[in-house]
Amino acid sequence: MTLRHAMTLGAALTLAGAAGATTVTTFGDSLNAGVVIGSGISNTNFVVNTNTSNGVQTGIKAFERFVGDISSNMGTYYAQPGESPVSGAAGAPADPGTATWNYLYSVDLGAMTFAEVAVNVAIDFNPAAGNSDVFEFELVSTLAAQNVDISSLSLFQDSQNLGFGFWQSIGDPNIYPFNPFAPGEYTMSVDVVRLSDSAHLSGVNMTVVVVPLPTPIGLAAAGLLAIPAIRRRRV
Predict the structure, then answer these.
(1) What's 116's DSSP letter?
(2) Of 34, 56, 130, 212, whose CB neighbour count within 10 A is largest?
(3) pLDDT digits (tens, 9 = 90+) for 97-127
């Protein structure tokens, strides 16, 4: 089940840097720009942060590769361990080293361009909770190094998998080895900062919890244990 939730006023409205702009974070939401990359990726189930002063918007979500949205709750997404298939075709073999889930993030600058901002992206490859094995990169300089015209670019979206070779291509080739079968949790964040005054314009983060589905025996045992518990509460 996916929950759509707008935080209470006191929690949702936050100051964004020196400019004093206000941002609003919503969960289970859609992007103003829609999803403009990939195939069959829905414009739903995002964590979205919108700057109410200038319309700058960031969004992020996890989803099952070749399948679609997964269960989420207030910025936490729940995925299964294991490898994804190489395609969405029935009976497709596994794609070695890739997770069952992908992520997608979006940076929509509205009337601004990427020449005016820095975009900091942080990815956690270690399934241990609260670890410091985080890979960080600055998106705009990465795009510029690939000869992207950042002076005319106002919207950027990207979808990746922690098992893709993309990470070694833009950073440390010895990046923390990713094990798609390991249960645990992974965090990711995207933050937009204006260069002229270092104002934080928008930012989102999420956690992906990878946990095996309960076995039929486990589910049956849980059901049997629940019966006496219910009976005790009736006494």
Answers:
(1) G
(2) 56
(3) 999 999 999 999 999 999 999 999 999 888 9
